[in-house]
Amino acid sequence: MKKQKAQQNAPLVFEFSYNDKIPTGFRLRKNIGYAALSKIQLGVHTFLANRQRHTNEKYDANAIMKMLVFQRLLAPASKKKAFESKDYLFENCDFSLDNVYRGLAFMNGRRDAMQLWMHQRVQKQYGREWMGDDYKWKSRKESREIHLHTADGSKMGKMVDEKHVVFYSAKYDKRAKAERALAVAKAQDIIASPGKYRRATSYGAAGYVKNLKFDKKTGEVLDVGAALLLDWDKIREAEVFDGYYIIATSEMEESDSWVIDSYRGLWRIENSFRVIKDEFDARPVYVSTPDHIDAHFLVCFVALVVARLLEMMVNRKYSIGKMLETLENAECTYLQQNYYLFDYTDEILDELGAFFGIDFSKRTRGLGEIKNIFWLPLKSEPIHHESLTNKMSVTAYHFRLSRSFLLQNSGYMATSTGCAPHGG
Description:
- About 45% of the residues lie in helices and about 15% in strands.
- It is an alpha+beta fold.
- It has a domain at about 25-125 and about 265-420.
- The strands form four sheets. The protein has a four-stranded antiparallel β-sheet. A three-stranded antiparallel β-sheet has the order 2-3-6. Strands 4-5 form a two-stranded antiparallel ribbon.
- The longest helix is centred in the last third of the chain and has 24 residues, at about 290-315.
- The radius of gyration is 28 Å and the shape is extended.
- The model is unreliable at about 380-424 (pLDDT under 50).
């Protein structure tokens, strides 16, 4: 033990010649940041290994999936570019580009089962706790008349069945009161210094100010000859509904909890689209066959789940984009004798390293020590976060929607209980 410790503390000596050259095809720079991503276990390796065992495919589908997901998170590019940059990772990428494309078809043929598998794994590992003690709700079913425009331009009445779910959340109540307090403070400042504000800058607070008028052209506050006053009646009226929401849906037979889950997941879905488009560069799609296109978005989905879990592990302290930028910057350079020199760290790496048991501040590491980082299991206890799993499951439920959304760039239609791509 003492001898081993002495060896670890001994200085490392490297010799470089002025005329040393880089061997052709040898990549000196590698990424170590994705070690944090590799600690998030979704069980995909087990799923793919079990499915591939019953085929004649000779490549390692899990190795291909890992390469594509990590590259999508750190350096989004085409499948060909990802393959050409595979040495950027400390992974065994013993497969060809043809294997990558065959692997895409293999994965796509099992995408539905894979999503269900991931959902079950995350549910078991992290829990699913949307409905807590601070919730209460009631529902009713009724019919009402709606008016439709016919082909000839006339109107017609039609009776439709609806389910109304009213729910209350103590957390939403608290948040609404905090947001209103900021709006009221801003309204009081408008009253005190109206010249500081325009229509655009008074958004959210103008409704609480009596006699407030704006110039339609300039947006400036107009002097209408009446004093600006805080509208306490409107404030008290709004407070009555703090924490309450009402959802109208045509899904008559679904449970109240399903309706509430779907409604609460909508903004997560919207945000997930933004992450997929902006952070993962999901478009343009550099593959052309239906199997490969669907598999491309399956890779984006797996990457999104990994990123969401990472976001939850730091309690959303940092955005996904900021964390991925940090992990991309966590690189190292090959020296000699299987040693690498590390040259980047920051606050985010410190926090992720503390959680995953990785010391990102260490300057040098041998290849064996680096491999141990990826192979050693995560020692942290499972995380049971309030809404962690449901965000993943909602995203999984709408996988086909994300493909249509990103391919057509036509947006999506949102109802009170879910989303559907244009044209079905």
